[in-house]
Write a structure and sequence with these properties.
This protein has 22 helices and 5 strands. By secondary structure, it is mostly helical. Its main location: membrane.
């Protein structure tokens, strides 16, 4: 694409052409990303971040983050060796910074799954530039939250009591407790999110493997990518696996923070005992999660000059999500106050009077209201949504407000309970502060390491939404990507259009090989028998047409190799739908059966327990664990089925001997006809592939 600005030209109107129209011509659709004129350009732009030395700002940022992390480790060590008395927690404020930070980080992790899973199910393609970053933040946020359940119990060496394992007294956990539901919900959410993140990384890890210059990077990324090479036979399983994992992750977004809210809502404490907590917590988690994604994404976008991939449209849409979820959170604030008044319960009303007007922590309540309800209303203005520095300022305030929301819910509700004689204040100690700062240090340390060593943008997914990947895209001059009469661009993305020019059409030529490709390529440990014939094509459209033609000529053992999933290629090579959903269903049923057996055996037979007057066989309280284990086992079965059905790991393939095949994960499009095909003939098949327009045609040894 041209990097020169597009000059103003006169475009003939409908009236000038003799076709009067009462409506102005609409602006053309703005592409999701700008600038990369080839797939290789995009690959280099993102992969070079992990291949080159880090920029000058990276080391100071890493040292600051790792310094905070070291402080948190020292605080945790001092706490474990001394006891939880070093925290400021007291009676009645037995939960303070520990649970406040726990709930805060669990909420931060929700945006990643929303962007990756739910928007994927709704086919929102704008997510492709930001989903990898948000998925990584989900993993890191849950790791930060996982610090607290273990250390806040005091005796860290008894942390294994949280898991369903027999202890010294043969006493098992109470499966009717919301705290145990919390353990299953958070651990399942972390595991499924990790699987989802890793599955999405596999094609990009293969790209880094094929670009690696050192043997160490080749081996490392080769092992992590499991030998992925972009076969259409593999892509069909991959797409279904990704869809299954997205479907499994979607209800987790609702269940995890709903279960976290049960820790509070199932109690009778004023300020906690309310049914609005589950939807309130979920909306607040998505609200805070999106704010943290923007908090990290905007500086990374500026530092690595990713304006053409993460455009103002991405920031604008995410700000609209913040506006919507912030309004829902504000509604929940008002509903809490209304129900406290309408219920006529003096304890509930006293709690909210203490929060908003007369209490010791009234300032914290109004910080929460200002940051979470009032400031996001600025996003009604388009300039506020499309100005990155202003968005960064607002989301910083939102993150502060979301932390104070958890502080208000926990500390303000606890320090004034039923009896005035038991009221008290909470004073955090240096251990509380250092532990909290250490958690932020852990989060930002992991984020910086992720940016440094892994692609922060999903290469394969972004390639699939480039205009050149769409065979139906109309390539032409950007007639409407121009300034208006006042010399202004309609949007910031139109300014990008003027800067980068029109989208590039698919290439029609192939880069030459470094050395001539012989007609027959032996492998290092070959048998002398042909494996098949391979040909390279210029773009996905030519490859799709060649595969369809080969199929029409009677070839059946076909396969296409592409850097991203090409729609219609599966049918072109004669492949059916993947059987992977059957394995997902089998995993779900296995998880459900395991949960039923575990809970009923332990709670009704091995250690019969009556909780709240309920019968031994009362199953309603077992439902959360039923659901979590069903999703957990389904996720594991999906991952293992994907690996098995794709025949991975396969660290060596005969096609690796082809001198240009390493481009398949970057910008190469290859068609192969295997020697097992009944119509295969060494000379005739090679000539046939050449007649289809294939380049670098060769027969590969088995």
């Amino acid at each position: 694409m041209s990097s020169n600005a597009v000059t103003h030209t006169e475009t003939p109107t409908q009236e000038a052409l003799g076709h009067p129209s009462p409506f102005p011509e609409p602006l053309p659709r703005i592409p999701l990303v700008w600038g990369p004129d080839t797939y290789e350009t995009l690959t280099h732009q993102i992969s070079s971040i992990t291949e080159q030395s880090p920029p000058g700002w990276w080391w100071p940022a890493f040292l600051i983050a790792s310094g905070l992390l070291t402080g948190g480790l020292l605080a945790a060590t001092y706490l474990i060796s001394t006891g939880v008395g070093v925290w400021g927690s007291n009676n009645p404020v037995n939960w303070a910074f520990d649970i406040t930070n726990f709930v805060f980080w669990i909420g931060i992790g929700h945006a990643g799954t929303l962007i990756s899973a739910i928007l994927f199910l709704f086919r929102q393609k704008w997510r492709t530039s930001i989903n990898r970053f948000s998925e990584a933040m989900t993993i890191f946020a849950v790791l930060c939250a996982a610090v607290y359940p273990g250390i806040h119990v005091g005796r860290f060496w008894y942390a294994w009591f949280m898991f369903p394992l027999p202890n010294a007294n043969h006493i098992f956990q109470n499966f009717r407790s919301a705290l145990l539901w919390d353990l299953f919900a958070v651990s399942t959410y972390f595991t499924i999110s990790l699987i989802f993140w890793y599955v999405g990384l596999i094609p990009d890890l293969a790209t880094l493997r094929d670009r690696a210059k050192s043997r160490r990077r080749q081996v490392l990324f080769g092992l992590l990518s499991l030998g992925w090479r972009g076969s259409t036979r593999h892509w069909r399983h991959y797409e279904v696996a990704y869809l299954m994992l997205a479907g499994l992750s979607t209800p987790l977004v609702l269940s995890v923070h709903s279960v976290v809210s049960f820790d509070f809502a199932t109690s009778i404490l004023p300020g906690w005992h309310t049914t609005i907590f589950p939807p309130y917590f979920v909306a607040g988690a998505i609200f805070g999660g999106f704010a943290m994604v923007l908090q990290c994404l905007i500086p990374a976008r500026a530092a690595y000059k990713l304006h053409n991939l993460i455009t103002t449209k991405h920031i604008d849409v995410m700000c609209k999500f913040l506006l919507a979820t912030g309004s829902l959170v504000g509604y929940a604030y008002g509903m809490e106050l209304f129900i406290a008044w309408y219920s006529g319960n003096p304890y509930e009303w006293q709690t909210f009077v203490n929060r908003a007007w007369t209490g010791d922590y009234t300032w914290a309540y109004w910080v929460m209201i200002s940051c979470n309800l009032l400031l996001p209303q600025l996003f009604w203005v388009r300039w506020c949504r499309q100005t990155p520095w202003f968005v960064l300022l607002i989301v910083t305030c939102i993150n502060v407000g979301m932390w104070y929301e958890r502080f208000v819910i926990i500390v303000q509700s606890l320090h004034h309970d039923f009896l005035p004689a038991s009221w008290g204040r909470y004073y955090p100690t240096w251990v509380d502060w250092l532990q909290m700062l250490g958690d932020f240090g852990l989060f930002f340390t992991l984020t910086l390491l992720f940016i440094r060593f892994l692609p922060m943008i999903a290469l394969a997914e972004v390639k699939s939404v480039l205009p050149m990947a769409n065979p139906h895209y109309r390539f032409g001059p950007p007639q409407q990507y121009l300034r208006d009469e006042a010399g202004r661009y309609p949007t910031a993305d139109h300014a990008l259009a003027a800067r980068y020019g029109p989208p590039a059409p698919p290439r029609t030529t192939i880069p030459p090989a470094e050395e001539p490709v012989p007609a027959f390529l032996p492998t290092p440990e070959g048998s002398g028998q042909p494996w098949g014939a391979v040909a390279e094509f210029a773009n996905a459209q030519q490859l799709l047409q060649a595969a369809q033609t080969a199929r029409q000529h009677g070839y059946t053992h076909l396969d296409a190799w592409t850097p991203f999933y090409v729609h219609g290629m599966k049918e072109a090579i004669g492949r059916q739908r993947s059987r992977l959903p059957l394995f997902t269903l089998a995993g779900a049923l296995t998880g459900l059966a395991t949960a039923v057996s575990l809970q009923f055996y332990l709670m009704t037979y091995y250690y019969p327990t009556i909780v709240g007057g309920k019968e031994y066989r009362s199953w309603e309280a077992f439902v959360p664990v039923f659901f979590e284990m069903t999703v957990l086992f389904a996720g594991f079965f999906t991952l293992f089925a994907l690996i098995g059905l794709c025949g991975l790991p396969r660290l060596f393939h005969p096609l690796d001997a082809h001198p240009t095949f390493h481009r398949v994960t970057q910008d190469g499009f290859f068609l192969t006809i295997e020697a097992t095909d009944p119509k295969f003939d060494v000379d005739h098949t090679r000539e046939f592939l050449q007649s289809l327009g294939g380049h670098h045609v060769a027969v590969i040894e088995r």
